[in-house]
Amino acid sequence: MRKNANSHSGRIFSDRKWIIPFFASLLVSVSLFLTAIIGTLSSSSGGEQLPFDIISFARSEESSGYFVESDLERSLNSNVVQKMEAPRLAYLISGTKGDSHRMMRTLEAVYHPRNQYILHLDLEAPPRERLELASSVKADPTFREVENVRVMSQSNLVTYKGPTMIACTLQAIAILLKESAKWDWFINLSASDYPLVTQDDLLYIFSNLTRDLNFIEHTRLSGWKLNQRARSIIVDPALYLSKKSDIAWTTQRRTLPTSFKLFTGSAWVMLTRSFVEYCIWGWDNFPRTILMYYTNFVSSPEGYFHTVICNTQEFRHTAIGHDLHYIAWDNPPKQHPISLTMKDFEKMVKSNAPFARKFARNDPVLDKIDKELLGRTHRFAPGAWCIGNSDAGADPCSVRGNDSVFRPGPGAERLQKLISLLLSEDSRSKQCL
Question: What whole-number distance in Å separates Cα of residue 267 and Cα of residue 138?
Answer without folding.
Answer: 30
